[in-house]
């Protein structure tokens, strides 16, 4: 079993995906931004390998204007070395990657121009996976699309247009139940007809179940039948409903107790679970640590090293409670550890606590800091205390000092990334 996350990484420097304005989309700028994005992707792949994450969804924005006539560059060839290097890391680590075109990629549209653009976009996504040298277990996830007043006709159009896709795209395409139009029963009928995998989404099912009913366990088992050996392990999407928000809105983080209730009902220990959640890789590691077959206190200690100053500026009491919790090296209190972290993030940052946390961080390099850096730190701290400056300004200085003095422990601290 692998647990993964989608697109963006929290807490790893220089992993932002850049875009280009149409007016600036000249060959030089497109090449520059693509190179940056591939470098960001490589850093995220390296992070995943270091943290034993073997499932990852690549951003569709990797190549600026990748499926648009605006970008006429032969970007797979221009960046061949980077693609091959990243692809080699993916394959060697046993990682499985995917892409998920957005809502405007509608293969069953009643408008021919929309269908043509959808096909072009699918070709672009396939080109990325091909440039990386990945096999057909690395997928492109797509929703069925719209209904346009006639569901059966819309399904027929999807099937017809699917047949016009190149074989390489057909072998990668998997279809997902959505939260409004096509429930899991609809998707399974289409998947069985086309002999392609169906990916089950638990939250979409909760919002848009078929009239026949059926729980997660039942439909996951039904969807499993659509996955062939050449497709790899069955993959599902898992998310949780954000309280007080529109149906389908994802939570900021995965609540571990709820996830474990879901996990415990799974029959297949090899299934891959893609998390859809706002804190991305942080929830992936949380869930991974909770179900690991080899629980080791060092896993939680590593996590604590990244979280602790973000906790300290919110709740010194919880900070101390977690320190106490981790003292006993004979136990693995994973659920209580993350419960305390989640509780702390429900609290606002208190100015006095924020000053205390900043002082702890400053302590890592105050002996090496120049007089100018010390004066600037004291000024930023005073301005924040007097409400004439911001905590963000203070943290920016501390982050720059962490980089300058090569305190990697701090550069990777979530203190700088979680507001």
Q: How many domains would you count in the coordinates?
A: 2
Largest sheet: 8 strands, parallel, barrel
Helical coverage, percent range: 40-55%
Q: Characterize the overall form.
A: globular
CATH architecture of the largest domain: Alpha-Beta Barrel
CATH superfamily of the largest domain: Divalent-metal-dependent TIM barrel enzymes
Description of the structure:
This protein is of the alpha/beta class and 419 residues long. The chain folds into two domains: 3-291, Divalent-metal-dependent TIM barrel enzymes (TIM Barrel, Alpha-Beta Barrel); 294-419, no CATH class. 50% of the residues lie in helices and 8% in strands. It is built from 18 helices and eight strands. The chain has helices spanning 27-50, 75-78, 80-93, 112-131, 151-163, 167-172, 184-194, 202-207, 216-224, 256-264, 281-291, 297-312, 316-325, 334-345, 351-362, 371-385, 391-404, 408-411; strands spanning 3-6, 55-57, 96-99, 139-143, 173-176, 198-201, 235-238, 272-275. It has an eight-stranded parallel β-barrel, surrounded by four helices. Helix 1 (27-50) packs parallel to helix 3, helix 15 (351-362) packs antiparallel against helix 16 (371-385) and helix 16 runs antiparallel to helix 17 (391-404). It is globular and about 70 Å long. The two termini are 32 Å apart.
List the topology elements.
Elements: E1 3-6, H1 27-50, E2 55-57, H2 75-78, H3 80-93, E3 96-99, H4 112-131, E4 139-143, H5 151-163, H6 167-172, E5 173-176, H7 184-194, E6 198-201, H8 202-207, H9 216-224, E7 235-238, H10 256-264, E8 272-275, H11 281-291, H12 297-312, H13 316-325, H14 334-345, H15 351-362, H16 371-385, H17 391-404, H18 408-411
Helix pairs in contact: 1-3, 12-13, 13-14, 15-16, 15-17, 16-17
């Amino acid at each position: 079993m692998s647990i993964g996350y989608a697109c963006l990484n929290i807490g790893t420097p220089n992993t932002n995906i850049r875009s280009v304005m149409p007016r600036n989309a000249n060959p030089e700028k497109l090449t520059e931004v693509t190179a940056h994005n591939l470098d960001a992707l490589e850093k995220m792949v390296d992070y995943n390998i270091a943290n034993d994450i073997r499932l990852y969804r690549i951003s569709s924005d990797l190549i600026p204007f990748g499926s648009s006539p605006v970008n006429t560059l032969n970007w797979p060839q221009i960046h061949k070395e980077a693609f091959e290097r990243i692809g080699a890391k993916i394959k060697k680590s046993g990682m499985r990657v995917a892409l998920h075109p957005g809502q405007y990629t509608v293969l069953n549209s009643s408008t021919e121009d929309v269908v043509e653009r959808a096909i072009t976009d699918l070709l672009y996504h396939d080109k990325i996976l091909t440039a990386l040298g990945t096999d057909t277990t690395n997928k492109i996830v797509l929703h069925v699309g719209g209904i346009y007043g006639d569901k059966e006709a819309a399904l027929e159009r999807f099937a017809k247009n699917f047949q016009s896709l190149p074989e390489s795209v057909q072998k990668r395409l998997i279809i997902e139940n959505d939260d409004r139009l096509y429930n899991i029963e609809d998707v399974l009928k289409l998947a069985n007809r086309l002999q392609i995998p169906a990916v089950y989404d638990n939250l979409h099912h909760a919002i848009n179940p078929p009239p026949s009913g059926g729980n997660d366990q039942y439909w996951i088992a039904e969807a499993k039948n659509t996955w062939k050996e050449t497709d790899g392990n069955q993959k599902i999407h898992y998310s949780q409903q954000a309280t007080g928000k529109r149906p389908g809105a994802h939570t900021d983080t995965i609540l571990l107790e709820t996830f474990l209730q879901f996990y415990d009902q799974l029959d297949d220990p090899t299934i891959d679970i893609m998390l859809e959640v706002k804190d991305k890789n942080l929830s992936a590691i949380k869930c991974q640590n909770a179900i690991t077959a080899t629980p080791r206190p060092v896993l939680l200690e590593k996590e604590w090293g990244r979280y602790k100053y973000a906790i300290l500026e919110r709740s010194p009491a919880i900070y101390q409670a977690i320190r106490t919790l981790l003292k006993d090296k004979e136990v693995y209190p994973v659920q209580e550890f993350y419960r305390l972290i989640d509780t702390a993030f429900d609290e606002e940052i208190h100015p006095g606590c924020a000053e205390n946390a900043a002082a702890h961080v400053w302590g890592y390099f105050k002996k090496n800091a120049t007089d100018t850096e010390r004066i600037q730190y004291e000024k930023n701290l005073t301005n924040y205390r007097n409400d004439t400056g911001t905590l963000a300004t203070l943290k920016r200085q501390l982050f720059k000092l962490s980089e300058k003095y090569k305190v990697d422990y701090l550069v990777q601290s979530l203190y700088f990334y979680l507001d």
